[in-house]
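note to self: dont lose this again. the chain is below, predicted strucutre after it. 123 aa total, dont forget to put it in the shared folder this time
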Amino acid sequence: MTTPPGPVPLAPPGPPRHPLDPDPKRSTKARAVFALGLIGALTGLFLGGVVPATTALLLARQARLEAYASGGFLTGAAWLRRGERLAWTGLTLAAVSVVVALVIAVVRLAQAPFGQDFAPNVD
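---
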């Protein structure tokens, strides 16, 4: 089967937009979610990432509701997903560091002498 020479026909454009429709625009909350998620992931091991990561997750929910209500005129879903993943990574790292600190504390407590330690010449 061969194709005829000449330009390839394009798909017909979708229905024309109404002149009063706003232009699609990236959500500023999506950018903020990504930035807060990145900060949360970078500082998650030091427990400083809990606050920005939690804020990112709360802001992501608001951004997702606004994007749904806008009917497709607010974009930035990819940035939103990346920010949420980074925020969850930051929270996971913070939880891991808390568990490691607890294990270290329990091991050190178990190695410490229990009770009062008297001198060898005391009965």
